[in-house]
Design brief:
Layout: E1 4-9, H1 10-19, H2 31-57, E2 66-71, H3 73-86, H4 93-110
Length: about 110
């Protein structure tokens, strides 16, 4: 399987990292959810690392710059499933649109 590449702005990565605040609210009584959570931990770490690096490197002139986030196929699949759940939680309009956009990009590349 080829890796899934997402090209996101700094604001998109921030919104994605913010959506992981609902990660602990997933029910843990189902086997498939436990499997999803174990894979998502790796994805969450990747996204949060990327966010910290971008926060420390940011300057005034990289406003529209895009950054690549590379995921393995199974990570992208689990992220898409998680984003389907995360969009039901209370998010700002901007964050919800970013979640929907990332979910759509993942769906296109996974198909």
């Amino acid at each position: 399987m080829k890796p899934i590449k997402l090209s996101l702005t700094k604001q998109h990565i921030n919104s994605l990292a913010y959506s992981f605040r609902f990660f602990k609210q997933l029910p843990e009584n189902d086997r498939s959810v436990k499997c999803l959570q174990s894979i998502l931990i790796e994805v969450k770490v990747k996204v949060e690392k990327k966010e910290v690096v971008l926060r420390n490197e940011s300057n005034l002139f990289d406003k529209g710059k895009r950054y690549n986030l590379t995921l393995k196929y199974y990570e992208a699949d689990c992220l898409e499933k998680y984003l389907m759940i995360a969009e039901t939680y209370p998010l700002s309009d901007y964050d919800r649109n970013v979640v929907l956009m990332i979910k759509s990009k993942l769906n296109q590349q996974l198909a």
